Structures are given as C-alpha cells and as structure tokens.
Amino acid sequence: MSPKKKKNNAKGSGGTEEVDDESSEDQEPEPKTKSKRITGTEDAGAGRGKKKKSKAPEEGYHSDTSEPDVRSSKKKGENKGKLKKNKKKAKEDSDEEYEVRSSESKSTDDEDHSDTINNKKKRAERLTEVIEATRKGTKKKKDHQENDMGSKDKKSKDDDKKSKKDKKEGEQPREQGDEEGDSKKKKKKVKKGSGGDSDEDTKKGKGKKKKLVENYVEIYENELRNYEPDTMENYEDEYHKKKVYEVVTITGDERGAGTDANVFITLFGEYGITPKVHLASKSRTAFEKNKTDIFRIKTHNVGPLKKIRIEHDNTGLNASWFLDRVMVTDITRPQMRFYFTCNNWLSKVEGDNLFVRDLLGSLDPMDMPKYNKYVVSVFTADVKGSGTDADVFINIFGEFGDTGERRLDNKKDNFEKGTEDKFTLEATHLGKIRKITLGHNNKGSSAGWFVDKVLLDDMGNKSLYEFPINRWFAIDEDDGKIQRDILVGGSEPTGIVYHVQVVTGKVRGAGTNSNIHMLMHGSKGLKNSGKIFLQGGKFERGLTDIFNVEISALLSPLSRVTIGHDNGGVNAGWYCEKIVVFCPFTGIEQTFPCSKWLDEDEGDGLIERELYEMVSLRQRKQKKQPWSLWIWTSDLPGAGTDASVYFQIYGEKGKSDEMRLDNKADNFEQGQLDKFMVELPDLGKLTKFRIWHEKRSPFAGWHLSKASLMKTLTKEKFKFPCERWLDTNEDDNELVRELPATGDLIAEPLPLIKYRVTVCTGKFGGSGTDATVFLNLIGDLGDTGERTLVNCKNNVNKFEKGNMDEFIIEAVSIGQVRRVRIGHDGRGGGCGWYLEKVMVREEGQAESQVVEFPCGRWLDQNEDDGQIVRELVPFSDGQRLYNVSYHVSVKTGSVSGGSSNSTVFVKLYGEKGDTSKMMLVVSDNNLRNYFEVGRVDVFTVETFDIGQINRLMIGHNNEGMNAGWFLDSVQIIVPSNGSQYMFPSHRWLCKDEADGKTEVEIYPSEILDIKQLMNYEITVVTGDVSFAGTNANVFIQIYGDKGKTEVITLASRSNNYERATTEIFKIEASDVGKIFKVRIGHDGVGIGSGWFLEKVDIKHLIMGMEEEEETEEVMQEIVQMYAFPLLPLAGPGGGGRGAGENTYEVCVFTGDMLGAGTDANVYINIYGENGDTGQRLLRKSGNLNKFEAGQEDVFTITAIELGPLRKLRIRQDNTASYSSWYLDRVEIVDTKDDTT
Where is the signal peptide (predicted)? Predict the structure, then answer.
C-alpha cells in the first residue's frame, strides 16, 4: 500500500519513522484478543471519551523511537500472523457477535513470534472450533440470517468436534464464567434440533435466566432530588493533575490495513475518563500496513486503566483500518504498561462495520480480557405506519459505561409493522444496565417509527431487562422526538432538558448539509449523554439553531461538549462559532467557544471537536423543573379545535409565564388525550390552572374535559376538571377557563367566583373608544390574567361617552381585589379613552360591597402622560403614588436593517413578583418613529413595586414591513428604589435572522446604585377668572427640613393650565422631609403668559399606623398632604415652620467707573436659615434704566420668612450688547424686624 498523506494536528509533535522490512515483519499483528463481531450491528458514530473540564489543552506527541518493549521478534510474529489469518476465516462464517480469546494468542508484543505457515492453518482450524462451541442456543437459523456479515468459507462439521476438544483444554474464552461455559455445551445440544429462536426458547435453554426487577428510575430520581446546586468541582484531586502517556499502535498485516483517517483514543481509568485525544502525526506513513506508531499524549490522570476506546473519523480516501493492538504506558511509571488487543477492522465497509472499538486492557500481556454479549429484541408496534426505513441506533448504559452508538442492522428488512427484530451486540461488561438510548436518523421516505418495547438479554449476567416504550419516534408525531432515553423500571422517567444553541460562524461557506451530532459530558467525563443527533437544524452561515434535548442524565454543569458531523452531503465542511447549553434544572447556562472549521479540507482536517467552557460567560438563571401535563379533549361532536392553546399555572409561591401548547402532533382532537412536557419554576403547591385560545372564528370552539399536572420528580399530582366549552357560541361565550387545583395534596380547592365588573367611561367630548379593551383583576391570591372585555351584559355599543358597561369575569378566587390593570390596544381612529372608574364586586354580593377603583384620566397616546394602560388602586387620595415608575431605555444596534416597525413589549421579573407584558408605545423623548438604527428610545412604565429586578423579557409582535429588529441593550432606571440595571443583548429579534426568536429573556450584567428619589403627587388648580390660563412653561421647587428639590417642570401631553382646571402631576424628586414651602412660577413664554393660580397641593406616602377593619392598627403606607393656598402667601395650611410671608428690600449698588453698568437681566437668590427665595429676576426698581454706573437700584422681594440671612447669589445672564457689569455691593433690609 502506498504511503498516504496524514492530516496534521497542532497538538501533535514529532513524527513516525517508516519501519524497515525486518521491522515490518516483527510488527505483524497479533490476534491475542481478536474480536469476532459477526453481527449486523453497526456503530452509529464515533465512540465517546468522557472527562471533566480540562485546564490545559490535550496534547498528542508522535514519537519515531522504536523501543525494545514495543518490538517483537520475527519468530513469534510469524506464528501469530498465521493464527490471525485463520481466525479471519472463522470470523467469516460465524453468525454471532462474539469476542474470542484464545490462550495461545494471549502473549503481547514483547514476545517472540513463531515460524511456520502450516501452524497457522492448524491454529485457525482450532479457533474455528472454539467459535462453534461457544454459540448460545438463543440464536439459530434466524440469527444466522440477521447477523451474517458476509462469510467467505464454510467450516466443516469436523471443526465442531475439534472445537469441543480444544474447549476442554482451556483455550475457550468464556465471557460468562466457567459454569456458563459448561451450560453452553448442553444448550448447543438441546437446541440443535430446534428451528425456532423465540424468547421463550432462549429462557428454556438458559434455564437460569432471571428478569431483572431493579427500579433504576428510583435511583435516578433520588439523585435528582438530592442534587446539591453549589457543589464545586475539586480541581485539586488526582484526575485534574496532568499526566503523559505513551500510546503505541500496531497496524495489522492485512491487505489495505492502513488508514488515511484521523485516529483518536480515549482512556478510561479509575479516576475518570479523558477527553478524546487525536493521535496526530507529521509523518506521511503513520497508520500504514504493518506499521508501529508511537505517540505521547498529555491529558488527565485517570489512574489505572480499565479500557480504551479507539476510533477514527472515517475521512480520507482509505478510511478502513486494521488495528492489531495498542499499548499504553504511564511515562512516570514505566511498569504501568497496559496491553489492548484488537486484531480487527475499524471500518464502515469491512468486518462488522464498526469504526469505534472499546478494548479491555491488562498489565499481563498473556491475560485474556473477557467481553460480554447483549441480545437486543426490538418490537415494532402493530400500528398503521409504525415501521421505519431509517437507520436505527442503540446505546446501552450500565454501571461501568456504555456501548457507544451501535447501528441495529442484520441485512434483512428490519423494523416492519408488528415485527420483532433481534440483534447481538458484543461489548465490555457494563455491570447492571441503567438505561438505553434508542433512536434513528430520520432517513428515508417513511422514517416515523412506533416502538412497542425493547428486551435486552445480558448473556454474561443472565439477566433480562424489559424497556416498555409505546411511543412514536417521528418528527411529525407525538412530541416530535426521534431519539429517547428509556430507563430500567420506567417507560417515562424524568427527563432533564438541555436547551442547546448551535451558532454557525459568519465566514464564507460556513454552512453545512451534513448531519450534526453532539455529546455532553459530565464531571470528569464519568457520565455522558450519548451521541445526540441534532435533527431539523439549518446550520446556515450566521444562523443560530436551537434544540431542546431531553436525556435521562443530570450532567450540568458540563465539563465539555463534543460537536461533529457525519461528513455527508455536498458541502460537508462546517464553521462552528460556539455552542451554548442551558439546563433549566440547574439554572446554569454555559458557553463553549469553537471558532474553527470542522472540515477535512480546512485547518487541521478534523470533523469532530471537543469544546471547553469559557467560565467567565457562565450565567445562573431561573431554575425550572419538568412537569408532565395531560389534556383530555371531550368526546363530543365538534369538541376538537385547531386554535393555538395557551396556559398559565399559579401556585402559592407565584405564577408561571404564559406558555403555548405545541408538541408537533395534531393536538386537541375530539376524544383525544394530549401529553406535554413543560418546565415550571418552583411555584409551591399549585392553586389554579388557566387555559385559553384566541381564535374567535367559527368552528374554533373547544370542549375541554380535564387536565392534570404531575411533577415528574416528586410525583406530586394535581387535577383540573373542566367539562366546559371555550367557544364564542357556546356556554357563556368565553374563550378562557380558570380551573382550581384538586387532588390528594389539596385539602380544599379554591372556589370559582364570578366577578361583576362595571367600567365607567367619562362624560367629556371624545371620551369613548372603539379600541379593544382588556382588564386584569389582581388580588391577594393571584390575578385573573388579561381578559378581553367583549361580552357586555347591558350595552351593545361598549365604552361610549357616559356609559357604565357591565362584564362578568369568571375566575378562581383571587381573595381581596387590590388592583385593577386596564388598558386598550391603541388601534383604530379616535382610540383615546377617558376612564372615570372601575367598580368590582363578587356576583351575588350586595351593592354596598362594591370596591371602587377611581381613574379620572385619559388612556390616550396624545393626552395626559400618553399611557394607554393604567394600574388602579382603590384609593381616590394620592392614587398615583402607589405605582412605581420604571424608566426603560432601549438602544437599537447600529446594524444595517436593524430598525423595526413592530410594536415592542417588555415584561419585568422581580423578587416580589412580575409585571404583565407592557407595550412600549409612547416614548418620553418623543422621537415619534421608534426603534431606528443606533438610537435610544426612553419609555416610562408604571406598575406595582416588584422589588429588585432579576431578569426581563423583551420582544415584538413581528408585524409591519420591517419587523426584524437588532436589539443592542436595555437600561432600566428605578429612581424610587435607587437602582439602575444594565441588560446587554446585541442580538437579532427576527424570524429570518440568527435563531429566529422575536422575544428574548435577558439577565442583568450589572446593577448600579443611584440617588434614591421619592414620588410626589402635585395638584395645581388654575383660578376661574378671565384669562386665568397660561401657555407658559410652569416650574416648581419644593422645600423641606431636609433640603430642597431641583427645579422641576410640570407638563404633560394635554393642554395644561386652562381656566378653572385642575391638573395632577406625578414627579420623582429628592426626599426633603417635612415640606414647609413651595416655589412655583413660569418662564413667561408665549402670548398671554399671565396665569391666575388658585392653589397647590402636594402629597407623598409615609409609613404610619392605620386601623384595618375589625383588627388592630397596622403599620402601612398612608398619604401625607400639604396644602398651599396662594392667598395669603403662607406655609402649608397657613402654619408650620417659618409660616407667614416677609418682604425684603434689595438695594443694588453699581460701581461708578466707566462702563460699569449693564443692560442684561439680573437675578438674585437670597439664602437664610429657613431656605432661600429661589432665583428671582430683579425686574422693577425706582429707576427707569436699571444698573447704571454709580446708581442704586431698590427692589422688593416677597417670600416665605427666611430667618436670619446667610448669603446671596447674584448674576446676570449676558444677553444684552453691553452686558458687563461692575457690582459694588448689595444691601438687604428685612422689613419685618427692620434689620439690614
């Protein structure tokens, strides 16, 4: 075979020298532990190495030294080579997957080889007999057809006799112990006349086969229940100490034995499992026929070796490889040399078609490790369309590892409707079986597959495991999965869900048509997910593909991730940017950067890579646990629906998000049970279940029979009976149902209550609205959710001027109603609405029991503060003070096409609760055309105090011409809490970009402390006299015993300060303590700027004692009010600190030098013990021309008593042409006590 070019890996160093002719003979492959894998099973892909996160990159060194212990003498090699040839003959005829160990072939490469070709033939004959004798009675004619991988010669009956003779001489490798070896001979005789191969026959033949009843589901779920979230990996233990191993591979002397593929090794030891290490060589002749290659690899210390997994990636022109044996030595302890015999093909087309092999090792070169057999029986259900043409794979997991993915194929038409298919897998001993992973690759026109069950016969341990499944493996059926984990002892265990984001890079040609797969590895690599096929992804340049992977293993936090592809398709090469894995169960999100090609023609030529976490990017998110949700549609005519169904769960500790029910199948058909797996945060004991759909069209109605929820981990179960229509034409014409939780855990379910809601529209011109109005009642025990007010009980034309519209809202009891959130969608011409109040009472209660929620405000984008949704409290006094303002600054990225015309919404989650979705429709900075490229839009949303914000959801409704949006970041300022939150995003929210999401959950990158402000409600009353109103800009400043506020402008979107009007404003300002005065004025701008002000009231909340009904006094927030009537000028209520007015005469002396005077405006502010006058314009003096050289100007300033004066501030505004001014001095006369 001509030398083949090998791919180079940056990790490798050194090379392999070509071996001379003599060496070639010396290195002839030894068959000491030859695997006779004569079965149709084919490995689904590369084997998996397992390891905890590496601190340093794995290194592979390829040495060209041929050490004495690696070489073997020519004599021994010849003898072994002969034996190997005839063993191959035996392999060709054998119809079972056995690993045969012959005692003559136990010696290793340190020993001499024997000579003659005749001996080869004799040994081969003996080996053939061994194989015949070890066949089990479970496999007869049927298995012969299933598992024959292409026999070349037939063996004689004489061979059978010889085989039995040799067996007595102790040369038979007995995988199942000495007793079993004897029993096999008996079974062979018993079975000889039988043509059947049924499971019953198997049991009869074995006699001692027992059905294993251990419930692994319990063990697994206990592990989940006892999960310790904060256990940290101990990086000081032995596993994390780096070690150098010498790996010697000896390629066999078969025709075409060499390979061009990339070869990998994984070491399994007592301390853990290494990552997969690339055996990279700079030599062009590595892994050539009859060649010894020596490598040095630096990886984790796994302790004494148990086994290795050796594999290649099936790339290159000649991928098939005949491996004779492998030796692994701990460099620091040369006596720790382990020998691993293979003597088999690693090939997709040769032998048993496996190119991943697990090899058992031994310190004794003469030792013969024993392998085990597993007989897999797969039962395809007798259901229409249940068969599949796809390639089926299985992975068996036990106490001591897994088999890796094996393809189930035996050259016949398998997995047809109603059939049983049997396969024999040969593997290392796995101990007690824990679970299997079964799946297919979705190939072919009829890929969907319905599996009834799988039986697994562990021949070595005489144990039979049953795995009931009874589920579809189909993209378009059931939950859309084509791969499932099935545990011993349960068909539907708690699956741990991992949300996997696969990001394809933005480099040219980055996309791929290959099938992508991944593996997730737990701590120290001891547990892994098995190979997961990521079906349904696009893997196109610049896109993010999202997968929800459910496996029955808790691996998070992951130590590493393996990502690769099958190198199929036209454009097989792929540029992977990164992998992001989020496990809701642990709440940990990990990022695994890649930024490399997986392409045999690019870079280092690898098509599979091990990725390690960038720990600095790790995020802790809200934890969620899996629940099983079952929904029964009634068996009534027309009971089914095609509408999208949504639900929300409430518990004692809070509520879930609104979630859509979708599982790829045709759901909610008449008489059907639909099953869903949902993830919910810790809600405590469940209290109610809300379910609804939004389709108001004919035939969208749905009759729901009942629903049930079970926490899969603790088996807590809650039932929600319904038996009602969700239909605009049936029952009460409502599309929403609230169902109280019932079941063993609920002593007394909450009652279902009808709330009578009266909505009173104002009596102003244009008060009514044609927009869609919605309402949410919020109480002590939860809320009703947003209900669209459609079915009015007393008016056909709703929400007209002066109307009082009544609606019935049916909901599970929410306790005392504390708030009402009401708003409209802002659609339609003249959608502005003046809401007077909302009244709520329980149906059947007296009118006197009604709770009134006053509003008295516009819900209009062009009036008041522009908000179209308001939260009302049952207090007329200071009602605006009970809401907290959240100032949301949204920055659109500077990316081409990044702007959006969609309506953007935000939802905030805090420690005290979460808000509903709030539409961002009116900005504070009034930029009109929102969310343009590179711009910041600021919005204010008002709701109850949710405490510290821990995350937010932001998205858009994907409507409009340019719906896609590039969100750069979000900043939220909460002045009343003194907090500022930064939420970086820098991602697309677009159906056609990245991961296709239009909404995203973001966690804060930092929380800053800012100055805490207080809410003040200011009521300004303009007098009822002619021309009392003003168009000028009005400002106010508040003084208290702790200081004063800034000068604050009082304005809204309405036409303010008209004659005989009352305006109410909410402002955020410093806490000034007890208020003793305000200063209010205007800037004199506009025609007729004069203003007749009647009075000013200021309110804020303080903590105080309030008497509750039939209870003692409790400490709570109460409204403190200060009234400031304008005439006579006084403190609040005419009394209080510094009450009463005072007049100050201000004498200003201008210097007498040339040019000392000024024509500019002069302002003065006088400071005393009780505050200051504020900045006043010195307008009228005794002189017509003020502030001339050598002149004294006298001005009178009236203000609240300042007490003893401390200082003054005087300035000019530099506006006139001769503005420079030489000021000599200022004298102030306090007219009250006549002091200067």
Answer: none
